[in-house]
């Protein structure tokens, strides 16, 4: 995945007797060194596609992939996830491809990577497809990145925001501000209350800009009617996982996995899992959403 981080016009000003804080590396290196982050994502992509794919006619190859790409603890975890697949009485082939991924957090030897998977399963001549979001905790062992923990449909607090400072910490703070902007936008865009259509719509506009705002304004009457006539209330569950994919000048792209709690008119509750990419624009008042895209399965 190509990753570019460019900061235009980012400066720090110090006046009076205060001395600048000594430059030190940020605690979270995701996107601070774009080439290093891209390298981690590539390595994790290779490992992920290997261990989440399975061919019942080539079990030794699968077991080698597990040994090469997972820590011992993760092997037990994946064995539970794959128990039904591996115990199938019929030949089965599962092909997994990474659609998109981004680093939530990265150090020199650890990374947490939010990944959306495309999965195609063939059994008894029938093929089914689907997508899944996973949060992968990885560790570097020598020249290889191994997966140490797998969370499916994850929910987790965001990493702590980077402390003020100079150099790379300025870059990290811009990344973190984009992530927080995405979370604020998602909170507004994914909450729907049929009992308060005007308030629901107002929240849409409050976090939007550019083409997305124009679309909302052009379709305002239809959207209000849709909210008002809907019978289900939706709210974003706590701790959605967000990872900044790129920041270029005053624009950013953020990959986000959110769980939506949906309650229908009869009081029945269900969950919807939403992998989303938010396109953000930085304005004087902060980051706003210029576009929102649901992650789609690969062709």
From TrEMBL:
Chief location: membrane
Signal peptide: 1-17
Membrane-spanning segments: none
Protein keywords: Membrane, Signal
Intracellular or extracellular location(s): Membrane
GO cellular component: membrane
Keyword Signal appears in the UniProt entry: yes
Keyword set includes Cell division: no
Protein's recorded name: Lipoprotein
Protein species of origin: Amycolatopsis decaplanina DSM 44594
């Amino acid at each position: 995945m190509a990753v570019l981080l460019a900061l235009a016009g980012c400066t720090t000003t110090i006046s009076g007797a205060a001395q600048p804080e000594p430059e030190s590396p940020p605690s979270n290196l995701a996107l601070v060194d774009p080439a290093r982050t891209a390298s981690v994502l590539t390595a994790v992509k290779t490992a992920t596609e290997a261990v989440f794919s399975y061919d019942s006619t080539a079990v030794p190859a699968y077991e080698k992939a597990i040994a090469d790409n997972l820590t011992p603890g993760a092997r037990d975890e994946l064995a539970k996830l794959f128990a039904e697949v591996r115990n199938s009485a019929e030949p089965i082939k599962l092909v997994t491809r990474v659609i998109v991924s981004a680093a939530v957090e990265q150090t020199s030897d650890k990374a947490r990577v939010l990944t959306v998977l495309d999965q195609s399963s063939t059994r008894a001549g029938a093929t089914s497809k689907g997508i899944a979001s996973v949060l992968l905790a990885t560790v570097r062992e020598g020249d290889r990145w191994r997966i140490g923990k797998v969370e499916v449909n994850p929910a987790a607090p965001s990493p702590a925001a980077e402390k003020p400072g100079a150099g790379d910490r300025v870059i990290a703070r811009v990344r973190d501000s984009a992530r927080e902007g995405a979370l604020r936008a998602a909170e507004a865009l994914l909450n729907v209350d049929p009992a308060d259509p005007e308030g629901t719509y107002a929240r849409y506009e409050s976090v939007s800009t550019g083409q997305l705002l124009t679309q909302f304004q052009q379709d305002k009457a239809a959207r209000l009617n849709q909210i008002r006539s809907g019978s289900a209330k939706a709210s974003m569950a706590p701790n959605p996982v967000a990872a900044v994919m790129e920041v270029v000048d005053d624009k950013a792209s953020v990959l986000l996995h959110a769980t939506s709690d949906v309650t229908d008119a009869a009081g029945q509750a269900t969950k919807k899992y939403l992998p989303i990419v938010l396109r953000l624009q930085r304005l004087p008042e902060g980051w706003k959403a210029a576009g929102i895209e649901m992650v789609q399965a690969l062709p």
